[in-house]
Specification:
This protein is of the alpha/beta class. The chain has two domains: about 10-250, NAD(P)-binding Rossmann-like Domain (Rossmann fold, 3-Layer(aba) Sandwich); about 265-305, no CATH class. Helices cover about 45% and strands about 15% of the residues. It has helices at about 20-30, 55-65, 80-95, 115-145, 155-160, 165-185, 220-230, 265-270, 275, 290-305, and strands spanning about 10-15, 35-40, 70, 100, 145-150, 190-195, 240, 245-250. Strands 3-2-1-4-5-6-7-8 form an eight-stranded mixed β-sheet, sandwiched between helices. α3 runs parallel beside α4 (about 115-145) and α4 packs parallel to α6. It is globular. It starts with 10 loop residues before the first strand and ends with a helix. About 40% of the residues are buried. It binds 1,4-dihydronicotinamide adenine dinucleotide. The site of 1,4-dihydronicotinamide adenine dinucleotide has 33 residues, from α1 and α4.
Length: about 300
């Protein structure tokens, strides 16, 4: 058997790959044989400014190690520039097999103090940035009947974090995007997954005590990305990775109770809320439609009793 995590002949786009996690993703993909488009706007953590230097430095590093890469300075918020990036990838390397949506910014503030502009710009980069990049490769991946797309979500989106209402909302939106795209892409072997990393980068370095910086180095997240971008990748998985530990997050559904329809239901629901939210036997529905039709089935079964 050929090694599963060999990327020879594959072409990957990694956004926000001028530093931090994206740089490590790009280096690892290139080291395993992929031709890589290193995208980065080259701005600050809060998304201002821009410079081609960061992306080019990573390209130079890949080439010095004997790999193949090209730099791209598109902002993922600019759909025309993203389309041009995909055209550049196809012109240089002939195809695009892998997209790692990694670019991101922070504008942390408690919701009370947050300007709507800071909310919008964070949603714009994380959610719309990933939408733009995914849309720009989607037709191509469908035609070639192969694609691996990784969305970078966050524990802040999955579980919340003080001061990150904008970031958390944008990050969980990427899980929603993944849920539907993994269903729509399946017939043409496009697999879409989420990565929730924890790593000491310029984005988070102040959060980690000094003695933990080494354990949380971004390289420790890379294996999860490689598995999600590989030929044998799962589909519709949310993989968490940090400091050598890997976990999966699931959006589960409790068994619930059929309570009925009618005037007495609000009080009955209030009285039985603990039963409805009890987690014994909870499941992960295969789709939103499956969850809805299951509710109807429970109602019909109750009506027959
Ligand atoms: P980072 O700040 O080092 O990397 C983000 C990169 O994205 C930067 O190089 C930046 O220039 C680039 N970028 C920002 N806006 C862009 C745009 N509009 N177009 C193109 N590139 C743009 O931070 P880090 O930690 O490496 O973050 C990578 C991803 O991982 C982000 O999506 C972040 O939200 C996510 N993440 C990181 C965590 C961590 O613990 N470091 C935790 C959870 C998620």
């Amino acid at each position: 058997d050929s090694p599963i995590l060999d990327f020879k002949g594959r072409v990957a786009i990694v956004t926000g790959a001028g530093g931090g996690l994206g740089r490590q993703h790009a280096l690892a993909l290139a080291a395993r044989g992929a031709k890589v488009v290193v995208n980065d706007l080259g701005g600050t953590v809060n998304g201002t400014g821009g410079s081609p230097v960061a992306a080019q430095a990573v390209v130079d590093e890949i080439k010095a190690a004997g790999g193949e890469a090209i730099a791209n300075g598109a902002s993922v918020t600019d759909f025309a520039a993203v389309q041009a990036m995909v055209a550049q990838a196809v012109e240089a390397f002939g195809r695009v097999d892998i997209l790692v949506n990694n670019a991101g910014i922070l504008r942390d503030k408690s919701f009370a103090k947050m300007e709507l502009e800071d909310f919008r710009s964070v949603v714009d980069v994380h959610l719309m940035g990933a939408v733009h990049c995914t849309k720009a490769v989607w037709a191509l991946m469908n035609e070639q009947k192969y694609g691996r797309i990784v969305m970078t979500t966050s524990s802040s989106g999955l579980y919340g974090n003080f001061g990150q209402s904008n970031y958390g909302a944008a990050k969980l939106a990427l899980v929603g995007l993944m849920q539907t795209l993994s269903i729509e892409g399946a017939k043409n072997d496009i697999r879409v997954n989420c990565l929730a990393p924890t790593a000491a980068t310029r984005m988070t370095e102040d959060l980690f005590p000094k003695e933990m910086l080494e354990a949380f180095r971004p390289e420790a997240v890379v294996p999860a990305m490689l598995v999600l971008a590989g030929q044998d990748a799962p589909n519709r998985t949310i993989l968490c990775a940090g400091a050598g530990t890997f976990e999966a997050a699931h959006i589960t559904l409790t068994e619930g109770r059929y309570i009925g329809i009618g005037d007495q239901v609000p009080e009955a629901l209030a009285a039985r809320l603990a039963e409805v939210t009890d987690r014994t036997g909870e499941q992960v529905p295969q789709s939103g439609a499956a969850q809805g039709s299951n509710e109807v089935a429970k109602g019909m079964a109750a009506a027959r009793r």
